[in-house]
Amino acid sequence: MTRSIAAFAFVLLVVQAGAIPFFQRVAEHSLRGLDVNFTQLVTSFGYPVEEHKVTTSDGYILGVFRIPHGLTAKGAAAAGKPVVWLQHGLLDQSGTYVNNLPDESLGFMLADEGYDVWFGNSRGNVYSTAHTTLSTDSKEFWEFSFDEMASLDLPACVDYVKAQTGAAKIGYVGHSQGTAIAFAGFSSIPSLADSIAVYAALAPVATVSHQSSLVLKAMVDIDLDKFLSAVGVNEFLPSTDLFESLFPWVCKELPIGCDAVIFSLCGSDYGNVNQSRIPVYVSRTPAGTSVQNMVHWCQEVRSAKFCKYDYGKDGNQQHYGQDTPPNYDLSSFSVPTALFTGGKDDLADPSDVEELISMLPDSSVVYTHNEAGYDHLDFVWGLDANTKIYAPILTLLQQYLQ
User: Fold this and answer.
1) pLDDT at 278
2) Is 228 exposed, middle or buried (0-12, 13-18, 19+ CB in 10 A)?
3) Which residues pair with 64 in a beta bridge?
4) Active-site residue, 187 included
């Protein structure tokens, strides 16, 4: 029942958003990678892959993947490779970095350039729904937001990777919410920040008061986040068999519906995205999160702050010892950071990015790149992201990691 309501909520959001369809037929030959998991997708291109499990201090068991080496001479198996961690965005999963062909996907490109590549999955998504004591049927399992991803998931994963590889420092690439948890975690936990050699933020998100993402805007406008909490829905847009089987069919047979879904997620201009692979993208995305996490993002829109989850006055006193949730303080942020932003990004709006930059010390921002025609998902799904975004990232990683 909970899953059905969550699925209905997504349809409601698309309708509420007023998504305008774009008619695009799908080429059958472009559907490689459809209806497979991360491991199957990676191995279908001939790359090695490992599956790992990382247990957090509060019992969440996170699915982590690794491509230990590439297929080129430069990427051949060897000890002591520099390590890079890739963290997905809101409602996404690790496959977002290997969704396109190897020469277009950051995960494969890094492996072929000689990096030991690790892929994270935040608690509550399709690869991270296990717990040492809690079931996903319980309300308690879903009582988290990006606060816990930053304070508990990220440190556990970085410590695990360092232990597995022997690396003293690693590179970090985050997209969307993957940047928010990095800003939150690196600013709050000095030992975590000390473990990061360089941080590439794709479509960086902190404050979101200027966002115009149709999904978030609709949730805020109709108070859907409060409604879902009130009726006891805990899981938001889970990756269910319904989604996985329905969306590819919709994309092939009813392109209006498929385009509406993508429109609602990434905005009106997605000309940079490989539209022939949209069925592949939506067969794994949305990948699920907690309603509490979506509530947190709606709170961020309303408050115009980058702050912790608001439990209400009494709850805030219990959690924080004060009436209001504390802001994340980025004034002492020390990790060398590269910001990759888009001029047409509905979620990481340019005005919010400017506010983020003003919150960071000048010394921490080592590189900025604005791609005027880019929307939010172009950074991970874009056809030309390999040359416009990933090439500069490779240069930065070589500078700071090798």
Assistant:
1) 74
2) buried
3) 52
4) no
pLDDT at 119: 99
Closest CA to 195 of 400, 33, 13: 400
Q: Which one is catalytic: 176, 213, 283, 290?
A: 176
Other CB atoms within 10 Å distance of the CB of residue 395: 12
User: How many C-beta neighbours within 10 Å does residue 221 have?
Assistant: 11
Residues 112 and 234 in one domain: yes
Range of the domain at 94: 37-401
Distance CA 263, CA 258 (A): 9
State the pLDDT at residue 188: 98
Which tokens in the block code for residue 180? 């928010």
Paired sense of beta strands 337-342 and 289-290, if any:
unpaired
Task: State how many domains the chain has.
Answer: 2
Task: Give me the pLDDT at residue 174, please.
Answer: 99
30 given a catalytic annotation: no
Per-residue pLDDT tens digits for 145-164? 999 999 999 999 999 999 99
Catalytic site includes residue 29? no
With helix as H, strand as E and coil as C, how does 132-177 read? Answer: CCCCCCCCHHHCCCHHHHHHHHHHHHHHHHHHHHCCCCEEEEEECH
Residue 91 sits at φ, ψ, to 5 deg, of 65, 20
Determine contact, residues 365/340, Cβ cutoff 8 Å.
no
Q: Tell me the average pLDDT across 58-69.
A: 99
**Is the same domain home to 284 and 325?**
yes
Could you give the 3-state DSSP secondary structure of residue 343? coil
Task: Please indicate, yes or no, whether residues 2 and 63 belong to a single structural domain of this protein.
Answer: no
Choosing from 69, 88, 296, 376, the catalytic residue is 376
pLDDT at residue number 26: 36
- Judge if 69 and 5 occupy the same domain: no
Q: Of all helices (H) and strands (E), which one includes residue 266?
A: helix 255-266
Q: What is the CATH number of the domain that holds 336?
A: 3.40.50.1820
Dihedral sign for Cα atoms in the order 286, 280, 73, 79: positive
- 153, 345, 349, 352: the catalytic one is 345
pLDDT at 34: 67
Is pTM beyond 0.70? Reply is yes
Q: What is the mean pLDDT of the chain?
A: 87
Does 117 lie in the same domain as 10?
no
Of 203-212, 229-238, 316-325, the range with the lowest mean pLDDT is 229-238
